[in-house]
Design goal:
single chain; alpha/beta; Rossmann fold; 37% helix
Length: 204
């Protein structure tokens, strides 16, 4: 299975298209997209806890576009530091912030400014003060080395053109014994070169 995109793929264009798509998801979540979004999808298809979702603002959940439920995959201890890669409008980020409590920290990282603004507004609306938002992406995390107890990610690694570098960044920021809880899309067989060169497929 390839861990990197073709060497001649225009990764700058890829990043720009990803930003454009998810900026539209932030600003107009009711628009037409080829992937599911929102609270009903999170609760019905991905088994998010209804009561937990009720504790965070609809502002965050309406733009939710994850592919799984990373917080179901392992425990997040109270008081711990959590980093959410590709936090979007903040659904998983705010859920994690509530779990770790006031003695913990939840750091959200996203490359899309409208998503960061929406996550910040949602945290403020909910009165959740242990949240910090940072601009960045999985290939160069704006996080100190060995500073994080748990890293979570939901549907972001499949968008990264260099998976080895992405995983290396996750391992860099985790403390010894830290945990990486992630949900993502994988394929069972090698994709043909024509598919791997299609930016529209990468960016979705």
């Amino acid at each position: 299975m390839a861990a990197t995109c073709p060497v001649d793929l225009d990764t700058v264009r890829l990043r720009n298209e990803i930003r454009e798509i998810y900026a539209r998801v932030a600003e107009a979540p009711e628009g037409e997209f080829h992937f599911h979004r929102g609270a009903a999808y999170a609760e019905t298809f991905l088994r998010y806890d209804r009561q937990a979702l009720a504790r965070i603002p609809p502002l965050a959940i309406e733009s939710f576009a994850g592919v799984g439920n990373p917080l179901r995959m392992g425990s997040v201890p109270p008081g711990s530091t959590v980093v959410d890669i590709g936090c979007g409008a903040g659904t998983d980020l705010l859920l994690a912030a509530n779990i770790v409590g006031p003695r913990g920290r939840a750091i959200g990282i996203d490359m899309t400014d409208p998503m960061l603004r929406k996550a910040q507004a949602a945290a403020a609306e909910a009165g959740i003060s242990n949240v910090e938002l940072r601009r960045g992406d999985v290939l160069e995390l704006p996080v100190e080395s060995a500073s994080t107890d748990v890293v979570i990610s939901n549907g972001v690694l499949n968008l990264a053109p260099d998976k080895r570098r992405a995983f290396s960044e996750v391992l860099r920021v985790l403390r010894p014994g830290g945990r990486f809880l992630y949900a993502d899309i994988v394929v069972e067989s090698e994709l043909p070169e024509s598919v791997r060169r299609d930016i529209d497929l990468w960016s979705g």
